[in-house]
Each structure stands twice: as structure tokens, then as C-alpha cells.
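Here is my example:
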Amino acid sequence: MSQTHAQYLQEMGISQWELSHPERLAGYESKRTPLSSECKLLLVSPEKPQGDLAVMFERVLKSIKLDLPQALHIQPQHLTSIELDGVEWVWFAGCESAQELKAKTLQSPLLSDINGNNQHRRDLWQQICAYD
């Protein structure tokens, strides 16, 4: 952790801990968090859809016959802690897929880069159509 981050945490009154024996955790795997059974699409992106991006995101969902309550967003670093059983689609926007998934997978730039860019929208649409 950088000195700047450590200083911010200290100013916020957040305690920091450092493992004295990290090797003791070798091989430890925490339990994965299950998603709601309603979730059919998981958006993995450093950017959460809000405002105009949420409107665009909802249009993409409708194109694959899903509604907003059937989608969830997570930050890329949290993907390994999520149980993906039952999820039909996993959309990586602005990050790479680091694992092989059973779900239909979409790969795109950030939503903010897709919004208003016809080529990026076409590329995304072609990926969606490839699953029909």
C-alpha cells in the first residue's frame, strides 16, 4: 500500500493490519457469495452505470430480453468472491475476463466509451447476436 493510501486511512480513523505470517493462509479459499436467483446478467466493470450510462445499459438489457432487476454490477476485483451458478450472461466492460465461464460472455470497452460510439455498439451487438 502506498504511503498516500496509508495516510488517507489514518486520517479517516481506519486501522491497518499487516499479517505477520501470510504463509499460514496459503491454500485458503473463502466461500463464494451466491447471487440472487433473479440475476441473469452480471456486469463486471470498474464503472457503475448511472445517468445516461444506466439508460444505455437498460437498452442493451432489453435487446437480450432482460429487465434492470435481472442485472447486477460488481467491480472486477470482486468477481472471484461471487458464485456464478445460474447467471446466463457475464459482461466484462472495461476489464478482461480472467477465467473460463459457463455463462454467455460479452467483452467490451467501458460503458462510457460505448455510449455514442457506433463501432463499439456494433461490436457489442455482434457479440450478443452470436449467442442467438
In short: The chain has one domain: 33-130. The two ends are 45 Å apart (CA to CA).
